Amino acid sequence: MSTVQGAGVVVTGAGGGIGAALARRFAAEGARVVVNDLDPGRTKAVADEIGATAVVGDASAIVEGAREALGGTVDVWCANAGLASPGDAFADEAVWAAAWDVNVMAHVRAARALLPDWLERGSGRFVSTVSAAGLLTMVGAAPYSVSKHGAYAFAEWLSLTYRHRGVKVHAICPQGVRTDMLTAAGSAGELVLTPTAIEPEDVADSLFEAIEADRFLVLPHPEVADYYRARATDPERWIGNMNHIQRKWEGEGR
User: Fold this and answer.
1) Which residues pair with 129 in a beta bridge?
2) How far apart (Å, rounded) are the C-alpha atoms in residues 114 and 167?
3) Of 92, 93, 174, 222, which residue is most buried, by most CB within 10 angstroms?
4) What are the pLDDT tens digits along the chain (254 aa)?
């Protein structure tokens, strides 16, 4: 794909799962890739596999290091690092704070560091791995659902604010993907997500289709569009259906 060939690309949370799949796909398309994760071993393994550069650390704090590794310019930022964060309204304050920090504020901080250069040269691409939970919700995961709604809102705001100035934004909103995060979702994930779970590579394919079409919303599970429409047009029915799933989950002993 000529759009990303030679581009400087950073993928956070790329030690496995969706992030690793995105890093592999960008590298295969000819991009110069920085692989970021907190785990040094996993980061280096993916980077070595695809001929990329490993930059270990918190996704909120590696923009300058990644920019330096790419020779001074970041063309594409994939804000992929995330926390599953299960729990209800009584989840500990630290769980809520961590979900908000990783799932939302890491995106804000990256954009804050990247936008001046992108706006000056009139180009840049921000890819936010959100989740269908950011459009809908997820039973048993209040901190995750709320923070993913925030991530989607921020991506949407970036797009509507800067698209006329050359900044492209994509929000990836899959349902279940066969990753460690799906495992971390526990019994709720098994009930809601596992039956239709896809591979991380399918998510990467969907992103590249959206890049080619210059489309903001990336739906690796196309049926999410129907759910989103139903939620918007008949919220009472939508909430009732989700409550039915909640009761089924409770009845199965969580």
Assistant:
1) 172
2) 10
3) 174
4) 678 999 999 999 999 999 999 999 999 999 999 999 999 999 999 999 999 999 999 998 999 999 999 999 999 999 999 999 899 999 999 999 999 999 999 999 999 999 999 999 999 999 999 999 999 999 999 999 999 999 999 999 999 999 999 999 999 999 999 887 777 777 877 888 889 899 999 999 999 999 999 999 999 999 999 999 999 999 999 999 999 999 999 997 66
Q: Residue 237 to residues 107, 226, 230, 243, 250: CA-CA distances in angstroms?
A: 33, 14, 8, 10, 20
Give me the half-sphere count of Cα atoms (radius 13 Å) on the Cβ side of residue 171: 25
**Inter-residue contact 125 to 167 (CB < 8 Å):** yes
> Looking at 144, 152, 227, 228, which residue is catalytic?
144
DSSP secondary structure, 177-212, as one string:
BSSHHHHHTHHHHHHHTGGG-B-HHHHHHHHHHHHH
- Quick one: residue 58, left, alpha or beta (phi over 0 = left, psi -120 to 50 = alpha)? beta
Q: Which one, of 206, 188, 110, lies nearest residue 144 by Cα?
A: 188
Exposed / middle / buried, residue 128 (Cβ in 10 Å: 0-12, 13-18, 19+)? buried
Nearest alpha carbon to residue 77 among 33, 30, 39: 33
In the 8-state DSSP scheme, what is residue 60?
G
